[in-house]
Every structure is written in C-alpha cells, then in structure tokens.
Design brief:
This protein has 4 domains: 10-186, Glutaredoxin; 196-340, Glutaredoxin (3-Layer(aba) Sandwich); 342-482, no CATH class; 501-634, Flavocytochrome C3, Chain A (Flavocytochrome C3, Chain A, domain 2). The chain has 26 helices and 14 strands. It has helices at 10-20, 85-94, 114-123, 137-140, 170-183, 238-253, 273-279, 293-297, 326-337, 342-347, 357-363, 365-372, 381-384, 392-395, 422-426, 440-447, 461-468, 485-499, 510-514, 518-525, 532-538, 548-551, 575-579, 583-587, 609-613, 627-634, and strands at residues 54-56, 62-64, 73-78, 105-110, 130-132, 148-152, 158-163, 209-211, 217-219, 228-232, 260-265, 286-288, 305-309, 315-320. The strands form 4 sheets. Strands 5-4-3-6-7 form a 5-stranded mixed sheet. It has a 5-stranded mixed sheet with strand order 12-11-10-13-14, covered by helices on one side.
C-alpha cells in the first residue's frame, strides 16, 4: 500500500525551523518569497504529459507508473545522500496524513543504490513509500542535483512543480506545495500546451510555402501523401559539404517511389549557390530562407539538419551532422517512412557485417534511447580526449567491431562505429536473424571480455546488467523534442555515471585511510591536493561556494564537507575524491575490501580517472592541465 498511517506533521515543523534558519541568500526570488514566477503552477512542465516510468521497489520487482492511473500522484525525486534530504522527505511524507489531500498517492523516487535507500528509509521511519530510479526517471523529468516535487493529476498531466528546497526559500516553497496538494484532487486536466494529441508518437511537420532559386513555389502542404526529405544546410559548412553528396544518390534512387527533397539555406553566399549545388550533386529545389523563418519553425540551429517527413505529414526521423553511413541510414529511414514492414527491412541488411547504431535506431527507437542513457554510448569520449585512441588494446573495448566487416577501422573513416553499440551485445545485425535478443548469461559473457582484469572498474555483473537491460528501462519519453535539451540531460547523466562513484555512501576522511595505507597517505600529504584548502584561505575565498567543491572532499555528499554529520574535517582534496566514498570499504571484511573502493593504478585512467580530474582541472580553472603529466605525480 502506498498510503498508510504515519506520524503527524510535527516533523514538518521541525524541518521548517532547521532549514528556515539556513543561508539567507539562498532564496530564489528577489521579493523574499523564495518562489520564482516560473515555478509551481507556472513551471514550463505544467500542462505536459507526465513521462511514464518504472521504479524498483524495495520489496523486489518493479512498480510501473502506469499502475497508478486514475489517481493524482505527488512525487518527490531526490538523492538520499544530499544535504537536508532527510528533513524534506519527512516533511513531504507527513502530508500523507492530511485528509484534505486524499486520495493523492505519495511516492518518492530515489537516485541511489537499493542498500542506501533502505538505510535511508530506516532513518526516516518509512514515512514516504519510495522506489529506486534505475537511472532514467530523473532524466525524463529533467531533475538534476536539486530535489523536485511534481504533482500529477489523475489523467497523468503535470499540474505543479517545485525544485530546490533549502535555506530561506524552504518555508514558502513547502507551503506552496501544501496548498497545491489540497487543490490537486479537484483539478481537471487541460490539454498539453505545446503538442497536439496526435504528436504522442511523432510531431507534425510545420507547413511552409516559399520560392526556390528559380522562383518556383515550394509548398510543403501540397506534397501530402509523399515522403519528404527536408535538408537545412549552409554552403560554408564542412559537414554539409561531406554529407550532401552522400544523400543525393539515395534521393534519386527513391524518387520513383514518391520521395521528394527540399533544401533550405539562410543565404546565397557570394551568389554561388547554383555552383555549390552542381559541385555537391544537389538536384532538388533549394529555398533561401533569409529571415530564417523556416529554420525557426523547425528550431534548426546547426547544419546539416535533416528531417524525414512521412506521407501523413509527421516527422519520422531527424539527423544532425554528417556521418559516413548517411546513405545507408537515410535509405532505411525512407523505406520505413514509405510503409515497408520492419521485418522486411531487417532481412534486407547485408549478411555477415556490422551495420552501426544508426541502422539499429531506425527500427528500435526505444532501445536506442535506453542505450543513450548508459556510459556505453560515450565510451569513445574517454579515449578521444587523450591519446589512448591510438592504443589498440584500449580501442577494442571502446568501439564496435574493430577490424571486422563493417566495424570500426579508424576515427577518420568509421567514426559511426565508435562507442559500445547494440551489436557488441546482440551480435552482427547483418542478416538480422530471428530471436536476435540475448539471454543474461550470454550477455554477461560479452561484458567480461572488456570488464575484466585490470579494467574491471569495480564491475559487478549483477549490478550492471539492469542498467543496460532494455526491459528495465521502458520508453520514458514518447514526445519529440526539437531542441538539444534532451542530449544535454543525457550527457549530464552519463558524466555522473562515468565517475562510477557510488552516491550515498558515507565519507570517512583521510585519517581513516591512514591506518591501513600509511605509505600512500604520506605520499598524498606531500602533494598540492593535501593543501588545496590553504590555497583558498590564502586568497580569502574560504567560504566561496563556487570554489569549495574543488578544494574540499565530499562537498554536498553524505558526511562530506559541509555535512554536520561528518566525523572529521573534510577540507582539501583527500583520498576519497579519487577513490570514492570509503565507508563501505572500512566496514567490509578482508575478502571484499578491493570490491568496495576504486583503485587508480590498476585501472584505465581514461575511463574513470580523467572524468574525476577534469571535473576541477578544466579549461576554465586549469587550462594547462595535462593528465598524462599530472597522473604520475599523484599515483601511489
């Protein structure tokens, strides 16, 4: 049961007293209310359909959000290890006892491990039923480090949202939530403000009428019933110059089947557009969109930007940038938009070859989006930022099909095969046999080909498989997004995962490490890391919140710097910044010590350690930083 008797709201009053006395400058609104104009009932998310999801229940199994259909839902997405999380959960969970808020279902969504969730539940007395986020719920709702309360009506539309509960803004923000909760059961749903109901699967392409270079009318609406390829490009764009000639043969090949193409550019640079068209094999009409009205209607800001529109006027695919396999991907996308069954398309793939994620994504959009949420989708990044992309031993585990037919050869000619793509787990897609899924035991055998030996990275098959198993991460976002916000949120999620540090595990401080690691502790004590806080104090910036995360340990984390529960001083860059929170390691029996901490010298530094170092030694703060030179100076 998600609703049950809990202690009354005394905990709420305590939380208000504790947090109301906090940072007087933390309120968000200049009028002192702590509530912004674009929050609450006016949040941009209000009026939109709530993304679907499943969360892992502490008692086992998965709770689908769809099972709560027909009831209003009050959801708190939070990180148990964050400062003040306990107070906020206690206050929010206490609302469940207010009869005025019935029949709302209260649900917590925790971004942490199941063990840490259970420990946190014991601390809060189980006041709020909570499920674990498998890694995609917070991303679907656009929730970052700050906690967010989202109120959803009985028809699954967002009606209210408030983020960030701390300091002087805590009282009014929680009061606003309480007032909204009392209104929620009586609210009637309005339609989504920015999408028509038929956009639930694909968006409708904005119509336009314009003239091409020869003065002929180009009317997108008049092409109803035909598949249309809309190509935004610029003459001086090097990516366009590579990509347009790859598109041309495919468009001519499918022209007899009704496929039409339209080019849109914002200018005719030097009056050379016709010459550019000849040189790049463009034989379709080109519109000069000087006021960028068409660009704006499609929210297109970078080129090339290719849209495939089906005969009913819906956008089926969108591709940014150039790619060596553009012709194959576009051909497959167009055939699907023309109504060919996916099974026939799969069977037509050349046998005995890797085909790449672009081909897979054409028919398997949900699975592709799931994959984007994993570190596998940015595996190449950890090599490309250094020199390890030249090391064949490293490359083999960061790309797909190295040296095999259709697989990765080098970053110049086969960059579309970079990253650990679908075919690494599922096998070559060429020929696409029936039953191409894999059983967990087989998948585990694939995993350990890379996650093994000195590259194990504290790897646990049982923990890792749920993060990449598509059935455990359902299609959360069926709405189309023109902007780059989705990709930005994915990259933010992946950046956190790349560090591979367990959120919520308590810090213990360098003194606790010294007992067993005296030689390493002494070596660390002589490095600039050990004096990082002194640098701030000397500059008179010891209280600057912009500097503290990089000059302290565990800032904002459990028993880290700033946490009143910290058992020792957490100033300067201590052991746990590189090795991860150490509480589990300290408490583990001897046979599990190595599995509960992160080594450096025995691991691939460009998979994890660079991600940790670069968080502070970035272009802004340390532009001359070279990890190849710096890492040996801090290794024990």
């Amino acid at each position: 049961m998600l609703r049950s008797h809990r202690p009354r709201l005394a905990a709420t009053t305590l939380a208000l007293i504790l947090l109301g006395a906090g940072c007087s400058g933390c309120g968000r609104a200049p009028d002192g209310t702590g509530v912004d104009a674009a929050e609450g009932f006016d949040h941009p998310m209000v009026g939109k359909a709530a993304p679907d999801f499943v969360g892992e229940a502490p008692v086992g199994g998965w709770l689908p959000f769809s099972s709560l259909r027909g009831k209003p839902v009050a959801m708190l997405i939070f990180r148990p290890g964050a400062p003040f999380a306990r107070e906020l959960v206690t206050a929010f969970g206490g609302f469940r006892n207010d009869p005025a808020m019935a029949p709302t279902v209260f649900l917590g969504v925790a971004l942490d491990t199941m063990d840490n969730m259970k420990r946190f539940g014991e601390l809060t007395g189980g006041v709020l039923p909570t499920v674990r986020d498998p890694g995609s719920i917070a991303t679907a709702y656009g929730v970052g480090e700050e906690a967010a309360i989202i109120l959803i009506d009985a028809r699954r539309f967002v009606r209210f949202r408030m983020d960030g509960f701390a300091g002087a803004g805590y009282r009014p923000r929680l009061a606003a939530v309480a007032a909204a909760l009392r209104r929620l059961p009586t609210m009637t749903t309005v339609e989504a403000t920015d999408l028509r109901i038929d956009y639930a699967r694909y968006p409708r392409a904005p119509l336009f009428t314009a003239h091409d270079l020869d003065g002929r009318t180009v009317d997108l609406g008049a092409l109803h019933g035909k598949a249309v390829v809309l190509i935004f490009f610029d003459q001086e764009c090097a990516h366009c110059q590579r990509d347009l000639p790859r598109l041309a043969p495919v468009l001519r090949e499918l022209r007899a089947r009704g496929v039409r193409a339209i080019g849109v550019s914002s200018r005719d640079a030097g009056g050379q557009m016709r010459a550019f068209m000849r040189d790049h094999d463009i034989d379709w009409p080109v519109i000069i969109d000087t006021d960028r009205a068409i660009f704006t209607s499609y929210e297109s800001t970078r080129t090339p930007d290719v849209f495939i529109i089906d005969g009913d006027g819906f956008i089926r695919f969108r591709e940014h940038g150039d790619r060596p396999d553009r012709a194959d991907v576009t051909r497959l996308q167009l055939r699907l938009a023309l109504g060919e069954p996916p099974a026939a398309l799969a069977a037509s793939l050349a046998r005995g070859r890797f085909v790449g994620d672009g081909i897979c994504a054409t028919c398997h959009d949900r699975e592709y989006r799931d994959w984007l949420m994993t570190p596998h989708s940015i595996a190449w990044d950890s090599l490309a930022k250094g020199e390890k992309w030249r090391d064949r031993e490293c490359v083999a585990c960061h790309v797909t099909g190295l040296g095999q037919p259709g697989g990765f050869t080098d970053p110049m000619t086969t960059l579309q095969m970079a990253n650990v793509q679908c075919e690494v787990c599922h096998g070559m897609a060429g020929g696409h046999p029936e039953g191409h899924g894999v059983v967990p035991t087989a998948r585990a055998a694939v995993c350990v080909t890379c996650h093994t030996g000195r590259f194990v990275l504290n790897f646990s098959i049982d923990e890792a498989l749920p993060l990449v198993a598509h059935q455990d991460t359902p299609d959360l976002d069926r709405l189309f997004h023109y902007s780059g916000e989705k990709r930005q949120s994915i990259e933010s999620t992946n950046a956190r995962r790349l560090e591979k540090f367990k959120s919520g595990v308590a810090h213990v401080g360098a003194d606790a490490c010294r007992e067993c690691h005296r030689e390493q502790h002494e070596q660390w004590r002589r490095t600039p890391h050990a004096g990082a806080m002194a640098v701030l104090l000397k500059a008179g910036r010891g209280g600057d919140p912009a500097c503290l995360p990089c000059h302290t340990t565990g800032f904002g984390q459990r028993r880290g710097f700033g946490d009143d529960m910290a058992e020792t001083t957490m100033t300067s860059v201590q052991c746990e910044v590189c090795h991860g929170p150490g509480d589990d390691h300290v408490k583990a029996p001897p046979n599990l010590k190595k599995e509960t901490i992160y080594g450096i010298t025995d691991q691939c530094s460009f998979c994890i350690i660079q991600g940790v170092c670069a968080a502070c030694h970035d272009a802004k703060n340390d532009p001359d930083f070279d990890i190849e030179t710096a890492l040996p100076l801090v290794k024990h």
